Structure formats: C-alpha cells, structure tokens
Amino acid sequence: MTETQVQNPRVVFDGVLERIGGSFVGDPTLLRKVLAAALANGHVLFEDYPGLGKTLLVKVVSRVLGADARRVQFTPDILPADITGTKVWDTDEGRFRLEKGPVFTNVLLADEINRAPPKTQSALLEAMEERQVTIEGDTHILPPPFFVLATQNPIEQEGTYPLPEAQMDRFLMKLSTGYPPNLAAEREILKRRIAWQKEDPTADIQPAMDIESFRKYQMLCETRIFVHDDVLDYISTLVRELRSHPRLEIGPSPRGALALLRASRALALLHGRDFVTPDDVRMIAIDCLAHRSIVEMEQALEGFRSEDAVADVLNKVRPPFRFKRGA
C-alpha cells in the first residue's frame, strides 16, 4: 500500500468523525470505535441507561456514511416477519410476491432489541451471521454492506428478554455511550438542542460519503492491512488466557479472536497505517471480548464483571514490541 493510499483513508475518516461529532457530543474514542466496527462490517450493541443518546448516535452514523438505514422499534409483540418480511398474494399478477422487511437495508437500527421475544431475536441470527434471510424456504441475500446497530437498556426488566449468548456472540463489539464527561460537554448538548430547534437533527445531516465509497474502504481494510505473526500470537494468547481465567465460567470462542482481529485492522486504517500494532488490539480488546465471556455466578454476585477479566488478561500478557511491516 502506498503512502497516498494510507493517508487518503485517514483524511477521509477524520472528516467523517468530525461530521459525526458535529451532531453527537461524546467521547471521540467511542466514535472511532463505532466507525471501526462499521469498517469491519461488524454489528454493534450499545448498552447504557436511557437518555444517553444511543439511538441518536446510530442514526447520525448511518446518515453520515450515506447508508440506507431502517429503524425498528422492538416490542414484546413484534414477529419475525415484521423484521425479515413475508410473501403476500398479488391478485393483479396472480402469484405470491415478496414484501421485504426492514432487514433489507445497509444499516438496521434495532432499538431496544431486548424487548423482542426470543423467536424474533432468532430471526436476526441468520441475517447477522450470513448476511441473508430465509423466507418461506427461499433464501435472499442482503445488500452489502449490512450491519446492525442495536441498543438496549440494562436497568429495565419488565417486558424484556435477555439476549442469548449465541446472539451476543454475533455482535463485533459491545459499547457504552456513558454520561457526558464534564460540565462543558453537558452545556454543549443543551446549546445544540437550542440551535437545532427540534429533538432529532439527523434529517438535516449531509452525508460525508456515499455507500459505494464506504464499501471500497471496507475492502481496503479487509485486504490491505498487514498483521504480523507476533500480533496474531498476541491476540491468540489474550483469548486463550481469558478462557482459563479462574473467575470466568466461559471464555470467548475463536469467533472472538476473529472479531478482535477485524476490529484491530479497521483501527489501523483509521489511524492511517497499513499494519496493526499491539495498541490497536489493546484499545478494542474489552469491547470485542467482554460480552463473549460469562462470569461465574459467585463472582458475579461479588460484583466482578467480564470487563474486569479482560483487563486482568491485558495486564498479564506482555504485548510484542519489536516488529515491523513485512518482517
């Protein structure tokens, strides 16, 4: 990859991040992680308290990327066909035709995904893993790119269904928007609300690129980012150490290691490099691995979290320091 090829994505996505930050007040690192997940064509689950801007963030991201986006408000009575679609009888043509559901899009905004019953959640598994849906025996390929940006609130129990481990494993990352970090950020949120003169400003956001251009950057991320064997060993060691952590019942599968690899390559591209560093891996490790790990019941009652286990392993495993591009 030439220097121009390295710098061009960095310039482009710095502009994308600036455009996202113009509508969403939040941690720049969080925004970079969201963009990295999109570049890696991975799904993201946002879990945080109500009112912290989860839905606004996913709407802003899809708008800035120029992606076709559909939003689904998940409720206890939603059916699988409400997501995937169904076949209906066309009296004019005398045959069944496919009525596509909202899953036929580039970005599916799944709002409060844990309010849907397990049967409906399972309808998303095929779409999230294989980028296709099966409707009445016929398989339909989803338009690339396709990724799910989902939200859920951690404190509401009534009318919610916890996501099963199989579906949690489909998410590349689990992120949290968090509270505004300081008084200035809190004030900026209020000032922007006054300037917008509306609750939702996303209709006025101009895309920073088109979806075809974004697709090309996804391919660049997949095919042109070098990963040294030492960095591969580092990722593998982190995952294996996590599986043997004494306070975990279950550690991440190889899919977790692959997720960490994909996200690290995307971060390298965002940073203007054509190779992955251990810092890329460390920056994203908790977000990619913690939701794939299950804490033992006794440890969970004591307040120990899977994020703590990943942090323990990051402190324990020494990253490689001497490697170079192509070595």
Strand content: 15-25%
User: So how many helices?
Assistant: 13
Across the major sheet, the strand order is 2-5-8-1-9
State the order of secondary-structure elements, H for helix, E for strand. Answer: HHEHEHEEEHEEEHEHHHEHHEHH
Helix content: 40-55%
As residue ranges, the low-confidence spans are: 1-7
Give the structural class.
Answer: alpha/beta
CATH class placement of the domain at 27-205: Alpha Beta
Q: Would you give an account of this structure?
A:
It contains 13 helices and 11 strands. It is α/β, with parallel strands linked by helices. The chain has a domain at 27-205: 3-Layer(aba) Sandwich (Rossmann fold). The strands form 4 sheets. Strands 2-5-8-1-9 form a 5-stranded parallel sheet. A hairpin with a 2-residue loop joins strand 6 (132-135) and strand 7 (138-141). The radius of gyration is 20 Å and the shape is globular. 37% of the residues are buried. Mean pLDDT is 88; it is low at 1-7.
Concise description?
The strands form four sheets. Strands 2-5-8-1-9 form a five-stranded parallel sheet. Strands 3-4 form a two-stranded antiparallel ribbon. 46% of the residues lie in helices and 16% in strands.
Question: What is the secondary structure topology, with strand pairs?
Answer:
Layout: H1 3-21, H2 28-39, E1 43-47, H3 54-64, E2 69-73, H4 80-84, E3 85-90, E4 95-100, E5 107-111, H5 118-130, E6 132-135, E7 138-141, E8 147-152, H6 165-168, E9 171-175, H7 183-196, H8 211-223, H9 229-243, E10 248-250, H10 254-270, H11 278-289, E11 294-295, H12 297-301, H13 306-316
Parallel strand pairs: 1-8, 1-9, 2-5, 5-8
Antiparallel strand pairs: 3-4, 6-7, 10-11
Helix pairs in contact: 1-2, 2-10, 9-10, 10-11, 11-13
